[in-house]
Design a protein that fits this description.
globular, about 375 residues, Aspartate Aminotransferase, domain 2, about 40% helix, four-stranded parallel sheet, binds pyridoxal-5'-phosphate, alpha/beta, 17 strands, Aspartate Aminotransferase, domain 1, single chain
Length: about 375
C-alpha cells in the first residue's frame, strides 16, 4: 500500500529507465512515451548532453543562495533574452510559481508607477495556470477551486472566444490579461493568430499588460520558440516552465525592461529558483532548441497530424477532431477518452487526457518519423478495436 496521499489516480505502471521517446519497465516492457512528463522532457529521456551537463555541474556546485551571483543563471538568462522579446528574467522552480510571479510583476508594475488600483487580472474561464492558491483562482475552474475557498480576489473571467465579455471586463482597475497562447489542460485549444494580435492591440489601447502563459506551449513545442511568435506580437510578461528544464524542475518569468524595473530588491525571491544545478541543465536544454530542432518539430507535426486525420476519416464516429500546433496535439473523441487512453497504453503507447474529451499527444521535440509511425499504427489499431 502506498502512503502517498491519494491526490492522483495513478496508473499501475512504473518505469526504471527512459531512452529518447521510450520508457522501459522493470520487466523489460518498452512503451512509446508521448506524454514526456507532460511536455517536460523536450529532448526525450536520457539526453546525452543533459546527462553530461548535470554530471559536470553536480561535481562542482549544486546550490547557493540568490544572495550571491550565479553565473550559470546569468548565462541562461542572456540566452533567453537574446532569443525572445524579453529584457529580464526571474528564475523559479515550476509553472505555478512562474504564473504567480507573472501576476506579482504585473501588479507591482502598476504600483510602481503610482496606479496601485490597477491590480485585477483577466483570465479565460477553465484555463490552467497551475495548482497553487492564486493560480487555481486565476484558472477560474470550479473543479480545481472546489473546497479551497475563500476565493482569492483579483481575477475576472470570460469564456474562451467571448470577445464581447472580455472587452466589458476591462475596467479602470484592470492590470493585465493573462492567457495561455495554447490552452493545454483545457483541451489543446489554439488561440488564433488574429486573436493574439487583437489582444495586443486591446492591451495597448487600455494601457494594460499582456501576460502569455507559455508554460506548456513554449520552448519550441509549437514549432517556434514561443507560440505567440506566429502572431508576430510582443507580450509584456511570459511565464515558462515545463520544457525549459528538460526534466529538471525549472520555471521562469520573462519580461520587458519596462515592467522589470518594478521588481526592486526584496520584492520577490526564491530559495531554490535558478540554482547552479538547475541552470546548468537549462543551459544545456536551450542550446539544443535550435533551428534544426524547430524544423523537426514542424516536419513531424505535419506528418503526425496528416496521419491522424487519415485515421479520423477512417473512423469518423470515434475521432471528432484532430487539433493542435507543433507537437502539442489533441485528439478530440466521440468515444470515452479514459477507455481509449487505457487501450493505447495496453498497446504500449502513452498519452494523457485534457479537458473536452481530448487525448493529448506530446512527443519529444526530437521525435522521429519511425516513432510517429508506431504511434499511428497503435491509434489506428485501437480505433478498430473500439468501433
Ligand atoms: C503545467 C502548467 C502550469 C503549472 O505548472 P506546474 O509546474 O505544474 O506548477 C501553468 N500553466 C500552464 C499553461 C501549464 O500547462
Amino acid at each position: 500500500m502506498s502512503v502517498l496521499a491519494p491526490n492522483y489516480k495513478r496508473k499501475n505502471l512504473s518505469f526504471i529507465r527512459g531512452k529518447g521517446s521510450f520508457l522501459i519497465t522493470a520487466d523489460g516492457n518498452k512503451y512509446l512515451d508521448f506524454v514526456q512528463g507532460i511536455a517536460v522532457n523536450s529532448l526525450g529521456h536520457a539526453n546525452k548532453k543533459l546527462i553530461s551537463a548535470i554530471n559536470k555541474q553536480s561535481k562542482k556546485l549544486w546550490h547557493v543562495s540568490n544572495a550571491f551571483r550565479i553565473p550559470e543563471g546569468e548565462k541562461l538568462a542572456k540566452k533567453l533574452v537574446k532569443k525572445t522579446f524579453a529584457d529580464a528574467i526571474i528564475f523559479q522552480n515550476s509553472g505555478a510559481e512562474a504564473t504567480e510571479t507573472a501576476i506579482k510583476v504585473a501588479r507591482r508594475y502598476f504600483y510602481s508607477i503610482g496606479k496601485k488600483h490597477k491590480n485585477r487580472i483577466i483570465c479565460i474561464k477553465n484555463s490552467f495556470h497551475g495548482r497553487t492558491i492564486a493560480a487555481i483562482h486565476a484558472s477560474g475552474s470550479k473543479k480545481m477551486t472546489e473546497g479551497f475557498g475563500p476565493k482569492v480576489p483579483g481575477f475576472d473571467h470570460f469564456e474562451f472566444g467571448n470577445h464581447k465579455k472580455l472587452k466589458k471586463l476591462i475596467k479602470k482597475n484592470t492590470a493585465a490579461i493573462m492567457i495561455e497562447t495554447v490552452l493545454g489542460e483545457g483541451g489543446i485549444k489554439v488561440i488564433p493568430e488574429f486573436c493574439i494580435k487583437e489582444l495586443r492591440k486591446l492591451c495597448d489601447k487600455h494601457k494594460i499588460l499582456l501576460i502569455l502563459d507559455e508554460v506548456q506551449c513554449g520552448i519550441g513545442r509549437s514549432g517556434k520558440f514561443f507560440a505567440f511568435e506566429y502572431a508576430n506580437v510582443k507580450p509584456d510578461i511570459v511565464p515558462i516552465a515545463k520544457g525549459i528544464g528538460g526534466g529538471f524542475p525549472i520555471g521562469a518569468v520573462l519580461m520587458t525592461k519596462k515592467v522589470s524595473k518594478a521588481m526592486k530588491p526584496g520584492t520577490h525571491g526564491s530559495t531554490f529558483g535558478g540554482n547552479p544545478l538547475a541552470m546548468a541543465v537549462g543551459n544545456a536544454v536551450i542550446d539544443q532548441i535550435n533551428k534544426n530542432l524547430l524544423k523537426n518539430v514542424n516536419k513531424m507535426s505535419k506528418y503526425f497530424i496528416h496521419g491522424l486525420n487519415e485515421i479520423k476519416i477512417k473512423y469518423p464516429k470515434i475521432i471528432k477532431e484532430v487539433r493542435g500546433i507543433g507537437l502539442l496535439i489533441g485528439l478530440q473523441l466521440f468515444k470515452d477518452q479514459t477507455e481509449f487512453i487505457k487501450k493505447l497504453m495496453e498497446n504500449k503507447l502513452l498519452t494523457i487526457r485534457a479537458a473536452e474529451n481530448v487525448i493529448r499527444i506530446l512527443p519529444p521535440l526530437n521525435v522521429t518519423k519511425r516513432e510517429i509511425d508506431i504511434a499511428l499504427k497503435i491509434i489506428s489499431k485501437v480505433c478498430n478495436q473500439i468501433k
